[in-house]
Amino acid sequence: MKSSSWTVYPFMPFLLFASILPDADGLFSTTVAGHHTILHTPIFWVILFGGMILIQKWKKMEILNPVSLGIFLGAQLHLITDWFTARTVGIQWLYPLSQKNYFLFQIHPEKGQGSIWEMVQTPYFSFYMENAFLFWVEIGVIFVAMSLMLTNILYDKISIK
Fold first, then answer.
1. What angle do CA 38, 25, 17 make, to 5 degrees?
2. What DSSP character marks residue 30?
3. Cα 144 vs. chain centroid, distance in angstroms?
4. Number of neighbours of residue 106 by Cβ within 10 angstroms
5. Count of Cβ atoms closer than 10 Å to residue 50 Cβ
6. pTM of the model
7. Tens of pLDDT along 22-78?
8. pLDDT of 83 over the 70 cut
9. DSSP letters for 71-103
């Protein structure tokens, strides 16, 4: 299989990095629920993506095509999974037109008033696991990603021989 810039480098590293980038706002927040800032809104990523495309067109930097798409898709995947697995705060899909939080399952904002660092401790961790369906879906996604990664590594080793 032939590698291209869209499937390997730089697309994938930027996609992976951007999939956690929206949570960078957690470094500056005092609560779990308070860490959903502009980085957790689609409009921010649309503007960033558009800006990167304009720079690519203006400066003729072809490398920005897979980089900008990786950043955009990674951030959108983060927002979709946050929307799907929301427990304390949803996603503001229509920001800045509306500041309404959207979520698929019932959320409990009062449980998100602890610090980010308290997330991995009891009682928050116990609260996090109360919705067994969401917990096991998240575990399943991790296993699927690991399986795909291992399959790709093994395929590359077999192809090299």
1. 95
2. S
3. 16
4. 8
5. 12
6. 0.72
7. 888 878 877 777 778 889 899 999 999 999 999 999 998 888 888 999 899 999 998
8. yes
9. HHHHHHHHHHHHHHH-SS--B-TTTTT----B-
CB atoms within 10 A of CB 158: 8
Residue whose pair of structure tokens reads 């999974």 in the numeric block = 81
Would you give the distance in Å from CA 57 to the centre of its chain?
27
pLDDT in tens, 99-115: 898 888 787 777 767 66
Amino acid identity for residue 94 in this structure: L
Q: What is the distance between the alpha carbons of residues 108 and 106, in angstroms, rounded to a whole number?
A: 7
CA 38, CA 96: separation in Å to the nearest integer? 9
The secondary structure of 101-132 as a DSSP string is -B-SS---GGGG-S-GGGGGSTTHHHHHTTSH
Output 128 or 41, whichever has higher pLDDT.
41
Pair of tokens at residue 6:
């869209």
CA dist 30 and 59 (Å) reads 40
DSSP state of 8: S
Output the CA–CA distances (angstroms, integers) from residue 19 to 73, 133, 137, in the order listed. 8, 22, 17
